[in-house]
Amino acid sequence: MPEIPEAGALTRGRVESLVRRSLRSGESLSLQLAYGEDEGEIFIADGKITAAKAGQLEGEQALTRLWSLESGSFAMKRGQVAKTVMFEQSTAKLLLAADRHQARWDRYVDRMGDLNRVFFAPQGAAEASGLPAPLRPFLDRFDGETSVAEVIYGSDLDDLMALRLVSKLVEQDVLDEIVQKEEAVRDVGAEKAAAEAWLDGHSGVFENPFAKSEQEEAVSDAFGEFTDPPEKARVEESVPRLEPKPEPKPEPQPEPEP
């Protein structure tokens, strides 16, 4: 059986996988979980789930909350045993109930989207939504800074009930979403290329005073220093030079007769 990791990051279904592998191992241990500003813990001993805590929750509600975590971190502490056994029902029934809860939870999350989304309740949202007075404090938790997950975990409602309520408010456009604007990353390479292209296209207006020297340096790097073009030098070396012919000497004139 693959070794159970000591620590790592949480993703969807990771808690379930860790718990089931720990149950099969037969070890006594605790799975410590951190999510947002809260912490949770699941105790396992002799192939059974013995206790669970999540924030202020204990027992089955704590287990189903930890079962549905999609972000955070975990750490495995071997040899730790719960001081008090919280579950009277069998582990098989606990797992079945957790799986049913998770299936419904996933459907609502997939419909609504990421639980890290942030909303705020505009003025008049309570009247527009038709929420009864006892649920107004729940609506007030959407302050433009608190994520959906934090609203759910901080509510006195059951997690699944709170998620269903948020999903309904979002579908009815009662809440306004805060869209996080990502800061544009400056592309220095593209900026430089654009500047060079623009300067080349306006060479008649902005003449480069170093263009001639830059061209001479480029030629020197490619061919080395020279005074005459290579083609001319090769032609002169292959054709022998002709010596000029001496001018003919003038013939002597005959002397006149006496």
Rounded to the nearest angstrom, the distance between the terminal CA atoms is 144 Å
Low-confidence stretches: none
In spatial order, strands of the major sheet run 1-6-2-3-4-5
**Helicity range of the residues?**
40-55%
Q: Could you tell me the number of beta strands?
A: 9
**Count of DSSP H/I helices:** 10
Beta-strand content: 15-25%
Biggest sheet, open or closed, and with what strands and sense? 6 strands, antiparallel
The H-and-E topology, N to C, reads as EHEEEEHEHEHHEHHEHHH
Description:
- The chain has 258 residues and is an alpha+beta fold.
- Among the domains are: 7-111, no CATH class; 118-178, no CATH class.
- 41% of the residues lie in helices and 17% in strands.
- It contains ten helices and nine strands.
- Helix 2 crosses helix 3 and helix 3 packs parallel to helix 7 (159-171).
- The longest helix is centred in the middle third of the chain and has 22 residues, at 91-112.
- It is elongated, with a radius of gyration of 42 Å.
- The chain starts with 6 loop residues before the first strand and ends in a 20-residue tail after the last helix.
- The mean pLDDT is 81.
Task: Using brief descriptors, characterize the structure shown.
9 strands, 6-stranded antiparallel β-sheet, single chain, 17% strand, 3-stranded antiparallel β-sheet, 258 residues, alpha+beta
Summarize the structure.
The protein has 258 residues and is of the alpha+beta class.
Secondary-structure blueprint of this entry?
Layout: E1 7-9, H1 14-25, E2 29-35, E3 38-45, E4 48-54, E5 57-58, H2 60-67, E6 73-78, H3 91-112, E7 118-120, H4 125-129, H5 136-140, E8 143-147, H6 148-153, H7 159-171, E9 176-178, H8 188-201, H9 211-223, H10 230-238
Antiparallel strand pairs: 1-6, 2-3, 2-6, 3-4, 4-5, 7-8, 7-9
Helix pairs in contact: 2-3, 3-7
